[in-house]
Amino acid sequence: MMDGDALESKWLGVLRRMSVGALAVSVSLPMGFISASKILLLLTGIAVFSGCNPRPLGWRVKRLPVNTWVYLGLLAILASSLWTQASDALMWKSVSRHSTLLLIPLIYFMVKTKDEAYWALRCYALGQLCVLASSWALFAGIHIPWQTADIGNSGNNFATFSSYLDQSIMASLFAAILWHQQAFVAIGWQRYCVSPACLAALGCTFFLLPGRTGQLVGLAMISLWTLSLIPSRLRIAALCAPIVLTMGFLVFSNPVHDRFEASWAEARAYMHGDASPTSIGFRLEAWRSALVSIREHPLTGTGAGSWGHQYDSIQKAAGRPNENPTDGNPHQEFLLWGVELGLGGIAILLGILASIFQLSLRMETASRRATQSALLATVIACLFNCALYDALIGDYLCVTLALCLAAGLKPCDEHRTYA
C-alpha cells in the first residue's frame, strides 16, 4: 500500500500547489473564476486529508489560534439559525457568505513550506498586475474586451472586473504586500519592476478609482510603511504622516478631494434630518439601526441573515417605513456580527483579527509587515463595509491573509521543520 509521503510526491502535491495558486490568481478575476477555484481547492483539500496518513500530515494539521476562532464563529452562525428572524433563503445566504472565512485555515492547511507560499504570492501578484494593466489601459483610452465592471456607474469607468470600491482596496493592499515581500516574490530582473508596480497600484487608487475606503486603506498602507522606516526616537513625530498624506492627496488628487467633499456634504445633510438615499446617509442610518438592534438583543442577536428584517422593523418603528428597505448588510462588519450574534459575535470577530496580529509577532520582519498590512487593510475595510461578508472582496482579503500567514509561519524547505 502506498504511504502518505509517496502519494503526496507523485501527484497530490502538484494538485495541491496548483489549487492554491489558481485561487491566488482568481481573487483578482471575476466571481466565476473565484467560485471554480474555491471548489477545486476544497476537493483537493478533501483528497489531501483523506489520501495521506495522519503522521505525514503533521506539518499541516497543527491548529492555529485563528483557526479556532474561525470555527467558533461559523459554529455560532449555524447555531443562530435556530432563532433567526430571517427566511431560510436569507439565513443560508448569510451562512454561505460567512463561510468565506474558512479559506484562511484551508489555505494554511494546503501550503506546506515558505517556498510554496511565495510561489502562491507570485500567482497573486500576477493576477493583480493584469488588473492594474487593464485599468491603466482603460485610462489611456484603450478598449478592453474583458472588462466586466458595471460601467453604468461612472466610478467604474476604470475598474476592470469588480467595482471601484473593491478594486481600490485590492490595489492598495497589493502595493503593500508586494513592497514588503519583494525580496521573495520578485526574482532577478523582476525586482526592478516592484517600485513602478506599487506606484501604479497606488495611482490607480488615488487618481483613477473614487473608492473612499480604498483611499483610506492606501493612506494607511503608506503610513505604516513610513513608520517602519523612521527611527523609534522619531515615531511620535511620524504620527503626523497620515495627516500630511491626507492633506497632500486632498490638494493634488481630484478623486480624493471630490469624494471627501461629497462625504462631508452627505453626512451634514443626514445630521440635519435629510432622509434622501445618499451613500453616507444610508450608511449612518444603517449603523444607527444596527446599534438599536444590538441594544435590544445584546446576548443572542437576531440570528443569521436577520439584518434586513431588523432594519425594516426599526425603520417602521421610527416612522420611516420602506424609506430604504434592504436585505443586504449594515455596511460595517462588526455591527453585522453584533446584529446576528449579539456582543459575543463582535468578540469572536475581534478574536479572529487579534489572533492574526498575535501570530504576526512571531514572523520575520518582511512577513510581519506584510501580514500586519493585510490585517490593517481588513480592519479598515470592515469599519466602513462588510468586507469579509461581501462576495469577491471577502475572498480577496481572506486569501491574502492566509497567504501572508503561510509565508510567515511555514517552515523552509531545507530545514523540514514542522510549523
- Major β-sheet profile: none
Number of beta-strand segments: 0
User: Considering DSSP H and I runs of 4 or more, what fraction of the residues is helical?
Assistant: 55-70%
Beta-strand residue percentage:
under 5%
Oligomer: single chain
Pairing-aware structural class of the strands and helices?
A: mainly alpha
Distance between the termini: 28 Å
Low-confidence runs of at least 5 consecutive residues: 1-7, 53-61, 415-419
Count of runs of 4 or more consecutive helical residues: 20
- pLDDT averaged residue by residue: 85
Taking all Cα atoms into account, the compactness measure Rg is 22 Å
**N-to-C order of helices and strands:** HHHHHHHHHHHHHHHHHHHH
Shape: globular
Characterise the protein shown here.
It is built from 20 helices and no strands. It has helices spanning 4-26, 31-51, 58-61, 65-79, 88-98, 103-110, 114-139, 164-180, 182-185, 194-208, 212-229, 235-238, 241-252, 254-271, 279-296, 307-317, 333-341, 343-360, 365-384, 393-409. With 419 residues, the protein is mostly helical.
Question: How would you summarize the topology of this molecule?
Answer:
Layout: H1 4-26, H2 31-51, H3 58-61, H4 65-79, H5 88-98, H6 103-110, H7 114-139, H8 164-180, H9 182-185, H10 194-208, H11 212-229, H12 235-238, H13 241-252, H14 254-271, H15 279-296, H16 307-317, H17 333-341, H18 343-360, H19 365-384, H20 393-409
Helix pairs in contact: 1-2, 1-7, 2-6, 4-18, 6-20, 7-10, 7-20, 8-10, 8-11, 8-19, 8-20, 11-13, 11-19, 13-14, 14-15, 15-16, 15-17, 17-18, 18-19, 19-20
